[in-house]
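Exercise 7.
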Amino acid sequence: MQKLIAYPLSIIYYLLFGTTLVIFEVIQWVCFNLFGYSAHKKSVDALCFFLVLNTYVLGTRYKITGREKLPANTPLIIASNHQSWYDITTIGWFLRKIHPKYVSKIELGRGIPSISYNLRHGGSALIDRKDGKQALDAIRQLAEYIETHKRSAVIFPEGTRSKTGKPRHFAENGLKILCKYASSAFVVPITINNTWKMTRWGSFPLGVGNKIELTIHDLIPVKDTPFPLLFEKTEQVITQTIH
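Solution. The predicted structure, written as tokens, is:
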């Protein structure tokens, strides 16, 4: 029965989703080219708001825990498990005050209205997984960017998303580069639960009636923590709270 209901709701969702992306492609272009970073950032915040709002058609609910732990005007490195693309919209809207920028695969920098534009122009790092040197250099530039501008970088150490919610092995290289070049930052371990259920049946129909949970754990200071310990603590605290 739930899957049967999901078909018409998914059609409505995708109509709203597509319309949102097309409209905000234009809005972002105008804001970025005519008014600069601040205006573009506000347009991206609005984009994320509507992308999250669209999911309410599917009966999606959100629970965010620990936002009070996030300091202002401090570089932050957000490390999170990765279950679906809805991880990004959840972080983008609910953590918008810390200016999240993403470590993303280079393929997403083309072909997706609004999303690709923001990744190319919003400060994120687009990495080529087949070119290790390019990938590490892009991550280094992102680290230097958040260190200078006191913003935040989002990295999914699993790399590829987990389609069942079960965490994959974390890779350390990307996080290590971020810590090396943003030495005054804090690592923010975040556990995301249930976004995988949005695509439990694939791209169509989408899952309905899901409660997406985002849990922000205690921050870890980069400069006071040896990287092997920091990496171990980060992976452990994230994976232990995955349902």
